[in-house]
Amino acid sequence: MGEDEFEVIEDPVAEEELEEDLTIYRTYRMDVENKRIIGMVDGAEASQQAMMKALQTRRFAYLIYDDQYGSDIYNKVGNQELTPGYLRSDIPAMVEDAFLNNEEILGISDLSYEILEADAVHISFTASTIYGDEEVEEVLTDG
Questions:
Q1: CB–CB of 89/130 below 8 Å?
Q2: Is the pTM of this model over 0.90?
């Protein structure tokens, strides 16, 4: 090969790995207090926002979401036919289930909760995400 010539070597495996590493999960930034969208958000902040939105969205209530999105907590807390013991045993599964389809969330631990009223639950847990561990605390109310 001459001075002006060079050989290009392609490594398709390296390109595939590079593409996977560059996945950015970006979404709209929600201003919950003023009920509006203000820009975009990504990374850990987007992950935190996605968790809160999934927990606060009643499953099966909105046609825009499929039957896998949201939380069943609102469908059960306040149901007079369900015993407090049933709710205490089912809330951890409902919280985990809200995140099954979110590939950014790898799992949750240290879940604690308290049923405050017939339609309110205080929840806190540690979420393992692709960005690291995040502490989550929220009061979920139906109303």
A1: no
A2: no
* pLDDT one-digit tens code per residue, 102-116: 888 899 999 998 888
Contact 76, 89 (CB under 8 A): no
End-to-end C-alpha distance for the chain, whole angstroms:
74
Give φ, ψ of 141 to 5 degrees: -130, 145
Question: What is the dihedral angle through the alpha carbons of 91, 143, 120, 53, rounded to the nearest 10 degrees?
Answer: 50
What does DSSP assign to residue 19? H
Residue type, 78: G
111-to-20, 127, 130 alpha-carbon distances in Å: 31, 9, 19
- Beta strand residue intervals within 14-71, DSSP E: 26-31, 36-42
**The pLDDT of residue 103:** 86
Q: How far, rounded to the nearest angstrom, does the alpha carbon of residue 53 sit from its chain's CA centroid?
A: 7
